Amino acid sequence: MPLLVVAAIAIFIDGWAALWLLLAIPVVPVMVRGFQTRFQSVSDGYRDTANALSARFLDALQGLPTLKLFNRGKEHGAGLEDAAEDLRKAIMRLLAGNQVVLLVVDALFSLGGMITLAVALAMLRLRAEAITPGEAVALVLLALQLIEPLDKVGQFFYVGMGGQAAAKELREVLADPPSVPANDDAPDLGEVEPVITFDHVRFAYGDHDPVLADVTFEVVAGQTVALVGPSGAGKTTIANLLQRNLVPGAGSVRIGGVDIDTAPVDWVRNQITVVAQSTYLFTGSLRDNLLVARPDASDDDLWQALRTANLEAFVEGLPDGLDTPTGERGLSLSGGQAQRLAIARAVLKDAPILVLDEPTASVDLESEAAILSALDRLMADRTVLVIAHRLFTVRDADQIVVLEDRAIAVASTEVGT
């Protein structure tokens, strides 16, 4: 709009006056940019404070039962109140900066600068008889139209600063390289024999001491191997290395003889299905959560999976059946029901390798019996890695591997030992 107004002045009134107005136009954007740089720390502080409050508020909601149990609701609420006050102050600092920008743009530039310049140009050019009195009035009136869109730049300073801070956070996340390369250029390997091999694997989190120093074992196709050991021994780390959520510092992890570090991530994860200690369910229906495993599954496929997971009778008894909402994070289901839904998802995925990471650790005895029965059916004709703390939970394994002191201490084919 400013450029169009200046062009109109140049064509219909006076080119010399239009040139001076054109030179004045960039002052507002440059000025606002200077203020943005000056107030960048204020904007960043606002975003940090807002993020901290959001995290604490979500934490309070999710931990509300625990706060009630220990009668600490009021104290925690007082902490949230303090955090909310910090956010209010951060917003007010940003708004104060916005008002400074509006004052400078409106008072000093728009009224004291552009309008004064337009009036002065009109008088000078009228005195020089370069324009008529009517053109002089038109020049001033058009200058008013010239500054209106420039004022918008200042008016949106507050929104722009908040947006810039958010964009900065996004850029930092997007610039962070993935911890696990996707290897999308690697060729798809198709079907391979579901044999799991850990060959002198070493892994450490960051600069800490290694969790795994020298781990070597193999799970033969169709075999069930139990991985046991004390808490913190690295059992779940082994599961994450197998799923390629982590990359070993030394050694190799292979599936069917293929080093998974060289294979496409999608191919690796297509070979594996996991039933973990706790199941994450998305907000939506039972159907939505099942289709995560196989989006093209028919209703018959879903019911068959529920039947295998010992959940068919429960879902049939619900008024909405498969369309029953699970609630936020699946809170409308019990722990045992959620675990059986996870088993149904594993049935639908139908991967050749199954990882069981303490799937009955957080359920009652009745639910445990139903889950174990479902797992027996799921484990059939698959290569299975069972992670457990207790030996009695893996008594049906073909082999037991004991993880101790960051390495394999015992690999026994005699389950009773």
Low-confidence stretches: none
CATH topology assignment of the largest domain: Rossmann fold
Helix content: 40-55%
* Class from secondary-structure proportions: alpha/beta
- CATH classification, class level of the largest domain: Alpha Beta
Q: First CA to last CA: what distance? A: 84 Å
How many β-strand runs? 10
Major sheet description? 6 strands, mixed
Task: State the strand order across the main sheet.
Answer: 6-7-8-3-9-10
CATH superfamily of the largest domain: P-loop containing nucleotide triphosphate hydrolases
- Name the helix and strand elements from N-terminus to C-terminus, one letter apiece: HHHHHHHHEEEHEEHEHHHHEHEEE
CATH architecture of the largest domain: 3-Layer(aba) Sandwich
Choose one word for the global shape: elongated
- SS strand fraction: 5-15%
Radius of gyration: 33 Å
What's the oligomerization state? Answer: single chain
User: What is the mean pLDDT?
Assistant: 83
Count helical runs: 15
**Count of discrete domains:** 2
Chart the SSEs and their pairings.
Blueprint: H1 2-12, H2 15-24, H3 27-38, H4 40-62, H5 64-69, H6 73-127, H7 133-155, H8 157-175, E1 196-203, E2 212-219, E3 224-228, H9 235-242, E4 250-255, E5 258-259, H10 265-270, E6 272-275, H11 286-291, H12 299-308, H13 312-316, H14 335-349, E7 353-357, H15 365-379, E8 383-388, E9 399-404, E10 407-412
Helix pairs in contact: 1-2, 1-7, 2-6, 3-6, 4-6, 4-8, 6-7, 12-14, 14-15
Describe the model.
It is a single chain. With 417 residues, this protein is an alpha/beta fold. It is built from 15 helices and 10 strands. A 6-stranded mixed β-sheet has the order 6-7-8-3-9-10. The relative contact order is 0.09. The mean pLDDT is 83.
